[in-house]
Amino acid sequence: MVKSFCSKALKELFLEGKSRKLDQKLVTRCLRRLDVLDQAEKPEDMNILGFNFHGLHGSSKRYSVHVNGPWVITFEWRGVDVWAVDLEQYH
Question: 56 - beta bridge partners?
């Protein structure tokens, strides 16, 4: 279950189903990933064809799923919950 967001646009999209702060070309793909993320019970549940799920290197264990082009959704996994969900642009 998603517990917190870093991205205000993703939080608005998750709670309201729409966001003026988010590029409309990303909305459908972000919603699909957020829905799966909210239902996931472990990080590996995000390992779905087309999501390009993988762990990120760093001090805290974060994960990433591809959205479109350089855009990815990143998140932390703590216990059975998802924290610090963010939308980032990788170059």
Answer: 62
